[in-house]
Amino acid sequence: MHTPAPESSGYASQGRLGRGRHMISGKVERKAHLVGVAGVGMSPLAQALLHAGYDVSGSDRLLDSGESAEVLAALKSAGVRVFPQDGSGVRPGAELVVSTAIESGNPDLVAAGRQGCPTVHRAVMLARLCEGRRCVAVTGTSGKSTVTGMVGVIMEHAGLDPTVVNGACVLNWRGPGRMGNMRGGKSDWWVIEADESDRSLLNYNPEWAVVTNMSADHFDMEDTRALFAAFRAKVKAGVVGDTGGGDPYEGFGFGRTAFGSSVSIGGAEYEVHVPGRHNAENAFMAVHLCLRLGIAPGPVRAGLATFRGIHRRLEKVGEERGVLVIDDYAHNPAKIAAAWETAAAGRRRVFALWRPHGFGPLAKMKADLAAVFGRLCGPEDRIWLLPVYDAGGTADRTIRPECVMDLMAASCADRVSVAEPAVAAAMAADEARDGDVVLVMGARDPGLPSLCREILRRIAARI
User: Fewest CB within 10 angstroms: 82, 192, 277, 283, which?
Assistant: First the structure.
């Protein structure tokens, strides 16, 4: 049984001092404990809470399994105290911050109930941090992390000094001990990624918003349109992108450059140094928004030109013996198509490894996944479908990636197989040759970047 929906009163409970506050020597201290703190939504929020002056702790199943993760090391370095997900990190007077995926029997949730700690949904907490701020919320089915990063980098370059809370790591801000998915600024500007997957974007009341696009991913198209319409109604100043009518890319001009793409808006050219038409569309949204915010074209152009990309978004991990290895977060058909088509440009063959990020999404998208893989996979390409990433909980585990392979049997049965990650990595490394690209795709699994590095190591060591 899952915890209540983000909009429900179950996430708004308050202690007597409210909002996780208690008195220490006459001073009000704010404490928060995040369940699943290494997650893509929780880890930037933990840093934003530190930036806002909270005492922050968190738990994660990565510790329970004895795994070591780069994200946990970065959070510890930032000042987050990290515990196993066994209830031991829940402290009296702290607010327990949860996502929709946290279930009622979670040990931290049980411990919080015993101690009378209030519970708040991740999006509700982020919305609270944005109160009284000039907030820009970026949402949409695809591209929202990249657009959030682009907007943040442009605003930073223009001197607006924004706080940015993103669902992915911006390479401009990534470094030793720094994840890059949160930038702490000193101005009133906040730029946030707003998640639509659990409808939690409805917790925000931003001044400005971007809706990148709409497609059937977590919901059917009717529900998707209704969800984004409800979100747009909450925006105070204006919405850029898919406003529910007409072409969101009207006036969009696209050209390829030596380093990426150029985008034409109002007769002016803006270059973005990341590949793919979809990234040019992302840049179009970011530029359009920043111009509407009143940033002059010169700083917008210069800021966009400094954008280095997003971790695990067509990220070039390395090249060995002429084989390029790329890591991408693609987890639905549209994102898989965008990643594959961009990675394949100029390469001889594609060797793709894809890991489903959940049992429910795989069951919902299996026919569309089979169709897109069947369309993309050429006569010399190969696809390895990896086991579903199991994040725990009470999901129906009867669905398997074999269901996608079975649906593809008529089109390319000899080019697709199901394998464990290590086996698929070894096979891809053994078969790939000069001019090929190995494309590793999937969401949620923190081990995929390591898998990419292992493929590179095997290629380099090949006799």
Answer: 277
